[in-house]
Amino acid sequence: MYAVVFYSQRGMSELVNSGRYDTHDNFTVVIQPFFRNVFLPVLEDGRPDHLTFFSVDCFHFSERGHAEMAIALWNNMLEPVGSKQNYNNFTYDRSKIHCPTKEHPFIFTQINSVSGADCPTDTIPAWAAAVLAVGGLIIGWIITWIIFYYRERKNRKRNKTTEMNGTKF
Description:
The chain has 2 domains: 29-114, no CATH class; 125-163. Strands 1-2 form a two-stranded parallel ribbon. The chain has 4 helices and 2 strands. The protein is mainly alpha-helical and 169 residues long.
């Protein structure tokens, strides 16, 4: 069973690290390896405390298990590729939640994890997006109005000629 897991993880890593998903500015795939090595806490008698973190079917996560996985995933996304934590120790400690820093206020990807890569410097001001959105709406309304105006004008012209044709003696 471990061989199947190992080879599937290795195949996934090779696929993601091939660069196939790093060709666009707006999409990427990053492996979050926090679940690669899992350490379950043990009970006082030495048995693993699996019922605290897993449901009674021992496969699905419990509420506490979901919380632990969410914390681990969040922390993993805030770590550079190549330096990601590949284990989770299920401590249910809220103080272990990481926050973005001023130096790196973003989720790390393969591209921005490269040494020397920092926050993008060519950012668009927030007001520019609002101005473009409002401008686009106004232009859309004008074009729509012009289309309907000329369509109505054409219909009126057609109705006027039909009306005059009906008045002949």
